[in-house]
Amino acid sequence: MSLLDAIKTAGSVPNKDPKFPHAPADWTKVTALRIARQEGLDLGADHWEAVRALQEYYTKHQEITLSMRELHDALDEDFHGKGGIKYLYQLFPGGPVAQGCRIAGLAAPAGATDKSFGSVV
Q: pTM (2 decimals)?
């Protein structure tokens, strides 16, 4: 792409944070930090890793209806080396899916706030 082409398309390309390549178009770290503060969380590197994992999962599965159980299991597997879903509950006491999705700018799948899963609003 030439410099001229880059300039012409610059206005039409969303300003994405390269550390969050799968983030929704309207999501920003500033918004995530505001939501986290409102929910009593101080986001650290481990939180951001989970946010990226959620955003990537949603990107890879956007063609299908998201299942709460499948997302829960995928997170458990992704973070198995750190303690799995129990570890994620330490990061997101409001539920790694429900609270994690809010911070990641994603709509939680149906059932994410179901008390039987241990997630809370």
A: 0.78
